[in-house]
Every structure is written in structure tokens, then in C-alpha cells.
Amino acid sequence: MDKILVLDFGGQYSQLIARRIRSEHVYAEIKSSGDMSCEKIKEDGYKAIIFTGGPNSVYDPASPHFDKGVLELGLPILGICYGHQLMAWLAGGTIEPSKQGSEYGRTEAVFGDSPLFEGIPSESTVWMSHTDSVMQLPRGFKGTASTNGCPVAAMANEEKRLYGVQFHPEVTHTSFGRQILRNFLFRIAGAVPDWTMEDFAETAVLEWREKLQGKKVLLALSGGVDSSVTAALLHRAIGSDLSCVFVDHGLLRKNEGDMVMSVMKDSLGVNVIRVDAQERFLGRLKGVTDPETKRKIIGEEFVRVFEEEAKKLGSPQVLAQGTIYPDVIESGRGAAAVIKSHHNVGGLPKDMGFTMVAEPLRLLFKDEVREVGERLGIPKELVWRQPFPGPGLAVRITGEITREKCDILRDADAIFREEIEKAGLGELPSQYFAVLTDLHSVGVMGDHRTYGSTIALRAVATDDFMTAEWSKLPFELLERASGRITNEVQGISRVVYDITSKPPATVEWL
Ligand code: XMP
Question: For the chain, which terminus, N or C, has the lower number of CB atoms within 10 Å?
Fold first, then answer.
């Protein structure tokens, strides 16, 4: 299998570059430039390299650099943005702050003759985001594209198969970006497009069957996409040697527990133990109002339940986890891991006596995980479901959590989701749900005055959940949801729609 190295210099689009390459069915992996050397690149047998963008200036001594021997490895290289400048600099060219200042956004570029631009019009739109520019080309290079603000918008040393582009071909605003990446992969590097999820699923099943032979494996199944696909894959590999524990903490959405059991256990035949721990969790959450304390309690209790179940199952040696590629890259980068720390239910303790961890999806992006899930026969509604936080409804009920409040929220949330799903929207919001606030307000029903709770509806569109836009849902849809919630759910006298984006708000209310 051909592998492309995405050598990361700290650019915000590094993952996007790798995803774009993989969508051409070529395997790409991201490595931080600080963790790689020319020797390592040779050893690892890459077909080609992409230098990513980065926030720095090549002249800044603190900016990430690389051994210039990388240009002599004989591998095709495509430098993007900072990567383009770094390539020029390593090859002896000069870089300076652009004369016309920063160039940001869509710009018209004129393309010259180059295998990289084969099949694209001589003028088209590119996406720019830079302050420095290549001023003097290195020896052996020629300029192959320009914009008004950037004379060397692209360069090439065709003999050595070294290419640089100042703009971002991975961003869809660059009209022919996809074609440019394809030209690099297939025309220039000669990569073979053999990375398919069908092959991945088949190979992974065989590989894990061999690795786990004779071992007992335990997985905490949340019902989310990652753990469900992990379960389906390992079930194919080792059948009943995999045991999954599905903890029902009483904070799940309406019918969620039954749905997960019916898909995973009844349809796919996965060995799943459903633990009804509702009383335990609600008991420990009694009187607690602080969101972080709620998360902590749920995390701790989850680990306890999981440990007890592991013991009952004779303490399996192997822990399976639904780790996926962005988790791997982000924890390698350090900073991003911190943002996510509260996002995983407590994590599992290191001293549970597992001798091995199985993470069959650790090389896959989310869209690839979903595709593998479909290939393994998991129904679309589970594979394409929106994310749901580990602490569940606990982060959607302000104030104290009670079973009654959970029931009210479950009903309101189910109505809102149903209305959204049947509204025939072009694209569903990335996440949509109801929140039960502890704000009470006066209402009127028939001739009676009521004093009920307020439900807030939230729907957002986002690619990465780091930032999110509130969804501009049609008023008619909101009206239907509001009408049904106030009519069908006891105790709700008011429904509001949350029109805050992230930042400054977060997606969840708590
Ligand atoms: P925020 O609220 O941080 O949410 O903007 C971003 C994404 O993370 C999810 N989220 C959580 N997921 N445990 C989780 O597993 C949590 O404690 C948690 N808090 C937020 C949220 O649903 C959204 O998808």
C-alpha cells in the first residue's frame, strides 16, 4: 500500500490535507515535523511527502524547520503555504514579507505549464492565507503560478519532482484544488489508489483475529459511532471472546438503550451486557448542581460499574477502545488533548490489569469509521448518528438532576429530533437537542395559569466542534416543535431557541 507522509509544521489544515488524500483512496499519515528525520522517512517507506502550512515565518528561529536533505531523498514533495516557503528556503531561495501585506481569502491565480496544473483552466480561484512570500526562486526552480499579490504563487523543480504552492489546494474555496492534489498523487508521485474501507475492514478483521487469538477482550460500548464500529469489527474477528459492557446510567436519550441493544445484540449478534445502573447514578447525583462535579461523579461511577462487570467476566486481559485518528494526533500534539479532557467519561484506570489494548480504528478519520461501520452491517441510523456526550443528559439539565426531569427532557428532545429529521432539510445540523433549564415562567393553558419549566432547543452546524454556527432552522419547524413540546410534555410552559454560536457559547449548555 502506498503511503503519503503529511509532514506537519503546525498548520491548521493538516488533518484536512490527510483526509483529502485518503478520499482519493491513498493512505496518508500525519507526523509532526519535530518527530521525523530523513532517516526515519526513508525507513518508513513513503511514496511522497506533503509539507503542510504553519503559522510561522521561516526566518523565525523558533519556527519548525527540517533537514534540507529531505529534498534529496528522491521523493516527490508538495509544499503548501508555509511548506512552500520552507521548500524554497531549504533550496536556497529567499522569503520576505509580501510587499502588499498579507493576502487572505479567495484570489484569482494565473497558472503556467506544469504537471501539477494539468487539466485545470489557466485562470481560476485559489484560497490564500499568508504574510510572507517567496521572492527569489531557488536555483533549478521555475515559477508556475502567480496572483496579483504573490508573484510566486507556485513553483516547481520538475526534474527533482519538488512542487510548492502558496495557496491551499485542500480547501474547497480553491476551485481546482482537488485536481491539483490528484495530479500530485497520481501524475507526479504515481501513487496507487488502493486504500478502501472495504479492504481495511477485511484486513483489520484478519489482523485482529490473529493478534487476539485465545484472548478475552472487554469493550465499554457507549452506543456512539466509534465504540459501536469497534465492537462490530472485533465481533467479526473473535466472536464471543469479545464482551461489551453497555452502562445505562439513566441519562440516555429516549429509547436509546433499547436501540443500541437491538442493533448490536439482536441484529449483529455482539455479546453485550446491559447494566442497569440508573439508580446508582441518580443516587450519586442527588443534590449536585455544578456541571463539572456532575461530570466527575459520572466518570467515577462509570469506572466502578465497569470494574465490577470486568470482574464478573473473569477479568479479560485485553481492553478494546474506540480511539480514532484525530484522538491519536491530538494527544500527540499535547495542547488539543487538554481541551478534550472532560469529553471522555473519566477515562479508564491504568490499574485494571489489562495486558493489552486493542484499538482497531486508530488510523481512521471519522468518515472512514462510518464507512467501515456500514460495511460491517451497522444500520445507517446508528452509523450516522450525531455525537452524544458521555455524561449524557446530565450536561443538558441545569440545576439538580432527578429522574422526573430526565423523563421530561427525554420527551422534549425526542420531539425536537423527530421534527428535525422529518422536515426534509437539505442537510441535518451537526448536533441538535433539547436542554431542560431550571428557569420557570408563567404560562396559560385553557383558563388556567401555569408555572412550568423552560425548554431550550439547540442546533448547530460544525465540522470539528471546536467552533460552531447556530443553525438557521425554518420558523415553521421551530413552531411545530414548540407546539408539540408544550402540548405533549407535562410541565413545560415555554420553549426558546438558542441563537448563540461557539465561541462565545459552547455547544452544550453545561
Ligand atoms: P462543547 O460543549 O465543549 O461541546 O462546545 C463540543 C462537543 O463535545 C461534546 N461534549 C462532550 N462529550 N463528554 C463527552 O463525551 C462531555 O463531557 C462533553 N461535553 C461536551 C458536545 O456534545 C459536542 O459534541
Answer: N
Ligand 1 pocket, mutate which of 227, 340, 395 (most atoms under 8 A from CB): 395
- Residue 41's contacts (CB-CB under 8 Å, 6 or more residues apart) are 5, 49, 70, 73, 75
Phi-psi region of 43 (alpha: psi -120 to 50; beta: other; left: phi over 0): alpha
Q: Please check whether residues 445 and 350 belong to one and the same domain.
A: no
Domain CATH for 254: 3.40.50.620
Residue 118 contacts residue 91 (beta carbons within 8 Å): no
**Which one of 170, 301, 368, 371 is the catalytic residue?**
170
Q: For the chain, how many residues are written?
A: 510
Q: How many angstroms is it from 436 CA to the middle of ligand 1?
A: 17
- Digit-by-digit pLDDT tens for the chain (510 residues) are 999 999 999 988 999 999 999 999 999 999 999 999 999 999 999 999 999 999 889 999 889 999 999 999 999 999 999 999 999 999 999 999 988 888 899 999 999 999 999 999 999 999 999 999 999 999 999 999 999 999 999 999 999 999 999 999 999 999 999 999 999 999 999 999 999 999 999 999 999 999 999 999 999 999 999 999 999 999 999 999 999 999 999 999 999 999 999 999 999 999 999 999 999 999 999 999 999 999 999 999 999 999 999 999 999 999 999 999 988 887 655 433 333 344 444 466 667 789 999 999 999 999 999 999 999 999 998 999 999 999 999 999 999 999 999 999 999 999 999 999 999 999 999 999 999 999 999 988 888 898 999 999 999 999 888 889 999 999 999 999 999 999 999 999 999 999 999 999 999 999
> Separation of 458 CA from ligand 1 center, angstroms?
13
> Among 84, 103, 150, 168, which one carries the catalytic annotation?
168
H-run or E-run covering 431: strand 431-445
**Domain containing residue 418: CATH number:** 3.30.300.10
Pairing of the two strands 142-147 and 217-220: unpaired
Residue to mutate (ligand 1; options 226, 300, 465, 466; most atoms within 8 A of CB): 465
Question: Do 342 and 278 sit in the same domain of this protein?
Answer: yes
Same domain, 379 and 422: no
Instruction: For residue 168, indicate whether it is catalytic.
Output: yes
